[in-house]
């Protein structure tokens, strides 16, 4: 359920409105058992009065490090971690950062809808706004914000004016006027998830030019396995959760600046893909969101069994 609130509410009014909406929903559904599943500590502000059978904190990013992070998020996270029975984190770096702060914490890196992105390998029809862009095409998809190193984007464009950079995604927390502009940089805006394979099918190389800053220190980009499933070779900056395992296994090339990106892209444009694809597919065969969920459910069931045993012990 997505709450739709009136414009112009204060922060306190927004919290109060969400508090009422959650109460009304639970009063209507009247679940006999339910899980409080948190993606952000901020939700604790309007749910701390509730008593779910199980609390799960699914922590995908270090939200406090993002530009414009709300005040008090670290204090709320400490409170949530004290209350929650189970905690999942979205990458190894995040796990290493928080594993000593909770006694039931487990790492679940981003998985991939392999079938969806793998369909890019068979698609041959370009979307209308990409059709006239010449090759080679160097592509990126994702949120375009303070986590992107714009100097790398501008540098690739300047060093290889014959390459075309296709940039897909919404702009957030930065001014659109700050984006590098050149004849060979194409900012195509936001696309639907269903459309992405159509675009990726026409790319020669993918790039993940993440800046190395506090906002990217713990990220585990979902687009890494998505690029690979699409059969698009990719170059990334040395994000820890990309370097290991993807860089170490040779699935992703690593570069730190525009010159290194150009060198790696040159390599990928000339390298046969067959052996690389075979290794990539072997890696992806061990990944799926279904497998991720099944493993999460084992932990949830284990907590439920422990709670039941504790209750029965109290009754004896």
Q: Which of globular, elongated, flat, extended, rod-shaped describes the shape?
A: globular
Straight-line distance between termini = 41 Å
Measured as a percent range, the helix fraction is 40-55%
Helix/strand structural class: alpha/beta
Care to count the β-strands? 10
Pattern of helices and strands: HEEHEHEHHEHEEHEHEHEHHH
**Percentage beta strand:** 5-15%
Major sheet characteristics:
6 strands, parallel
* Average pLDDT, all residues: 92
Radius of gyration: 22 Å
- Counting DSSP H or I runs of 4 or more residues, the number of helices is 12
In which order are the strands of the major sheet placed? 7-6-5-8-9-10
Give start-end ranges of low-pLDDT stretches. 311-316
Model description:
This protein is α/β, with parallel strands linked by helices and 316 residues long. The radius of gyration is 22 Å and the shape is globular. It contains twelve helices and ten strands. The longest helix has 27 residues, at 289-315. Strand 8, helix 8 and strand 9 form a beta-alpha-beta unit. Mean pLDDT is 92; it is low at 311-316. The strands form two sheets. It has a six-stranded parallel β-sheet, sandwiched between helices. Strands 1-2-3-4 form a four-stranded parallel β-sheet, with helices on both faces.
